[in-house]
Amino acid sequence: MKPAEQPLDNQINVMIIEDDELYRESIQELINDCESLQCNHAYESCEAGIQAVEEGFAPEIILIDIDLPGMNGIEGIRHFKQLSPASKSVMLTVFDDDDNIFNALCYGASGYLLKSASSENICQYMTDVLSGGAAMNPHIAAKVLKMFTQYSQPKKEYGLTGREKEILQLLVNGMNKKHIAGELCISLFTVDTHLKNIYAKLQVHSQIDVVSKALKERLI
Amino acid sequence: MKPAEQPLDNQINVMIIEDDELYRESIQELINDCESLQCNHAYESCEAGIQAVEEGFAPEIILIDIDLPGMNGIEGIRHFKQLSPASKSVMLTVFDDDDNIFNALCYGASGYLLKSASSENICQYMTDVLSGGAAMNPHIAAKVLKMFTQYSQPKKEYGLTGREKEILQLLVNGMNKKHIAGELCISLFTVDTHLKNIYAKLQVHSQIDVVSKALKERLI
DNA sequence: TTTTCCATACCCGGATCGCGGTATATTTTT
DNA sequence: AAAAATATACCGCGATCCGGGTATGGAAAA
């Protein structure tokens, strides 16, 4: 896998946001040691980085810590996404808990690297990101996958019949019983009967509960 | 990153499910060329693989194609997960469309590799998977991330006040107005007023709609 | 062929909801 | 200091919902 060679006068601009001075400088050196990358903008806070972007600097990649004084890195992503949508944000942090990962990726981070393991192949990760890939080590990737499976869960089976599922669907779409009856061309009483059966099967006692359960458990 | 060395008599068992004979054999060779891996079980269908597992074979890793005669690979994952929960499934396919990736990962795949790009580092990916990581190239990882951001969208702001959000939360949790009043130690009339304001802000006209909208747009 | 499941339809009484008001006291903003 | 926003509380009417029934015809399963 040979990365496309970048002319020296057209290197990829990487911005670094990291409050620890020593670490910041060491990462900056690492970046500048890669011939395809350069970093002339390294800041100790999101606020400082945001100012630089507002003044017209548009880095291809923003390497950003999470635990920062003032605005944290997750919030930071949102601001950078808004100010400079083309810039790709990559988290670089010691935290590998689900919440931080989840939030960072939800706000549009293009990668999530751990400080512990990143120094060796950071250059490779950066070029991956540039070519539209995502920077993630297998450990983080596994956590992301776990969220997926958790989120899209077992899909419990309550033994709903076809008609019942149909009615559940319309209910979730905001129709009341009368409208559902009209839509399906059946009597309101029939809708009522179906709904009662649905209640029994899902063990709930109101439309609210049904809709809530259906959406939370993705029954529809 | 030095992988733990495996004694030769304790290699990792990889099962292959792939209908194309040539490709199957080439992958099998590739696996057997890795000193830490071995593959004595390569089948042309999920059904055959399932039978092997039912007869007592428990591979550490199952490499499985998607497009198969009979049961497809996505369905296959589900069966293997049930028959041998400890076995990790990795998709190996030419399809890189969102639906296939999404479904595979939802059903608990530990990785998703493209045939085009996997042959070189398949051995590394396998050891990653064994150590709890996920096998994914940056291209696939980026698609997974995109699903994340799509899923957790813009988060519209409707200008709900603190109290209103609180009531919305309780409503989504299945409480009716009377219970909410009790929970918050305020009058039922007050809950009513708040709810009316919520309706106006979200532009809906029933609790169903509120719950549905709140869950769909992840307002809570 | 009998039995069970499914979809259909109806009734009623009490509870709950939706919406139209009005009103007051604090807190925040201007 | 005046204005706006927020949280609180109350009333009544008509619509809707919930749970308890009963009932029938057809399709699927035993």
- Using the coordinates shown, work out and report the CATH topology of the largest domain in chain A: Rossmann fold
Q: Tally of extended strands of chain A?
A: 6
Q: Which strand-content bin applies to the residues of chain A?
A: 5-15%
Rounded to the nearest angstrom, the radius of gyration of chain A is 25 Å
The best one-word shape of chain A is elongated
In sequence order, what are the helices and strands of chain A, one letter per element? EHEHEHEHEHHEHHHHH
Question: Low-confidence parts of chain A, pLDDT < 50 over ≥5 residues?
Answer: 1-8
Distance between the termini of chain A: 43 Å
Oligomer: homodimer
Task: Describe what this molecule looks like in 3D.
The two termini of chain A are 43 Å apart. Chain A has 220 residues and is α/β, with parallel strands linked by helices. Chain A is elongated and about 75 Å long. Chain A has helices at 21-33, 46-54, 73-83, 98-106, 115-118, 122-130, 138-151, 162-172, 177-184, 188-202, 207-216, and strands at residues 12-17, 37-43, 61-64, 88-93, 111-114, 135-136. Residues 1-8 of chain A have low confidence and may be disordered. The first copy, chain A, has a 6-stranded parallel sheet with strand order 2-1-3-4-5-6, with helices on both faces. Chain A folds into 2 domains: 12-150, Response regulator (Rossmann fold, 3-Layer(aba) Sandwich), CATH 3.40.50; 162-216, Arc Repressor Mutant, subunit A (Orthogonal Bundle). At the A-B interface, helix 4, strand 6, helix 7 and helix 11 of A face helix 4, strand 6, helix 7 and helix 11 of B. Chain A binds a DNA duplex (30 and 30 nucleotides) through helix 8 and helix 10.
